[in-house]
Amino acid sequence: MGVVKCLLDTHTLLWTLCESPKLSSNARAAIADTNIQKFVSAASAYEIMYKHQLGKLPDYDYIAENYLRVLQEFGADELTISTQHAHYAGKFLWEHRDPFDRLLAAQAYIDNLTLITDDPYLKSLPWVSTLW
């Protein structure tokens, strides 16, 4: 069996970085497991800064303003957004309109990653493997 690969949803990343009690024990264990390769999407960088600029993430000012350094210290691999990811995100027959969630779902699906998320919309997708 190869290395398990996981993609952190944006809220999972924020809760991990802030050691939030909202993070489930399963998610916390997977993130701490050195046998699991962790990825963070470029979509999360955009989502964090976008929502920070709107004032929607007041508890995460430090992370938003120092995102690149914080992400480097965290040690996850960056997952860029490809044309294929963007195409599938728009193509999915799924009523959920959140563009960030759609991109994360497409990345998890295309790159065969387990998505660590507490989002009920993402957890309901039969074609995306999730963990919480």
Compact overview of the structure:
The protein contains eight helices and five strands. The protein has helices at 10-17, 25-32, 42-53, 61-65, 67-74, 83-91, 99-110, 120-123, and strands at 4-8, 36-41, 77-79, 114-116, 130-131.
Structure description:
This protein is α/β, with parallel strands linked by helices and 132 residues long. The protein has one domain: Rossmann fold (3-Layer(aba) Sandwich), CATH 3.40.50. Helices cover 50% and strands 14% of the residues. The chain contains eight helices and five strands, in the order βααβαααβααβαβ. The protein has helices spanning 10-17, 25-32, 42-53, 61-65, 67-74, 83-91, 99-110, 120-123; strands spanning 4-8, 36-41, 77-79, 114-116, 130-131. The chain has a five-stranded parallel beta sheet with strand order 3-2-1-4-5, sandwiched between helices. The longest helix has 12 residues, at 42-53.
